[in-house]
Amino acid sequence: MIHVMPITSREVRLASRPTGEPTLDNFSFATVELADPQPGEVLVRNLCMSVDPYMRGRMNDTKSYVPPFEIGKALQGGAVGRVIASADDKLPVGTHVLSMYGWREAFITSGSSLLTLGFDRPPDLPSVFLAFTEAAIGLGLLALVIAYLPTIYNSFSRREVAVTDLSIRAGTPPTPPALSAVFCAGPHVTPPSLDVLIQINPFWLGSSHST
User: Fold this and answer.
1) What is the pLDDT of residues 59-84, one digit of tens each?
2) Kind and range of the H or E element at 11?
3) CA 104, CA 13: separation in Å to the nearest integer?
4) Cα 211 to Cα 171: distance, rounded to the nearest angstrom
5) Banded model confidence at residue 103, pLDDT cuts 50, 70, 90
6) Are strands 41-49 and 27-34 parallel, antiparallel or unpaired?
7) Angle, to 10 degrees, between the axis of helix 125-170 and the axis of helix 176-184?
């Protein structure tokens, strides 16, 4: 177990559920003393926190996609902090982490519940080169995918137009006999071959959610 100097933390708690716009009367302030981190735990001091609109909904005692804040307990929210004492080998002192333990100066939690921030320098130069190369390739591939999205969308749109045209002429879903009948209703008097049908609509052989 890691022994540290006694650490106190100030935190903001929900004192009552607001009606309309929250006021200071809906909150209380408390000072708590934090114990030493147990194996697998870390002591984090917050550097900054996020205040978001969804937090107002959590002050109401209603069912939602996130549970409501509990009266008498510290609020929660996104925060960035720095590990100041660690009993987790994966999170040494000095590591910057992202958590949902905002609205307080410091806290103790399991290291596995935190998201690390920053770049952990590899041990040697080849590893550094490999890490940056992987990052550059990843960003390049992401840029290519984003740049290619309009082309994919346009191709899909053209295909859907062709499929819709088939549905209008031959019913939904368009079947080969129906398509042949529609084709023969024109200037042609004999059923077309498969090659001719494909020339009329090259998307006929494909599949989509509407066929």
Assistant:
1) 999 888 888 999 999 999 999 999 99
2) strand 7-14
3) 9
4) 10
5) very high
6) unpaired
7) 50
Helices marked H in 13-94 — which ranges?
A: 54-58
- Per-residue pLDDT of 147-196, as tens digits, reads 777 787 777 777 777 767 666 665 565 566 666 666 565 554 555 555 65
- Tell me how far the alpha carbon of residue 107 is from its chain's centroid: 25
| Domains of the chain and CATH, by start | 7-117 (3.90.180.10), 125-200 (no CATH)
In degrees to the nearest 10, what's the CA dihedral of 36, 38, 44, 49?
Answer: -120
Comparing CA positions, the residue from 35, 211, 204, 202 lying closest to residue 109 is 35
CB 57 within 8 A of CB 18: no
Average the pLDDT over 131-157 and give the result: 80
From CA 46, how far away is CA 101, in angstroms rounded?
Answer: 8
Confidence (pLDDT) at 193: 59
Backbone angles phi, psi at 85, to 5 degrees: -155, 140
* Burial tier of 15 (Cβ tally within 10 Å: 0-12, 13-18, 19+): middle
- Cβ contact 174:197 at 8 Å: no
Going from the C-alpha of 30 to that of each of 11, 14, 57, 67, 137, the distances in angstroms are: 6, 11, 23, 22, 49
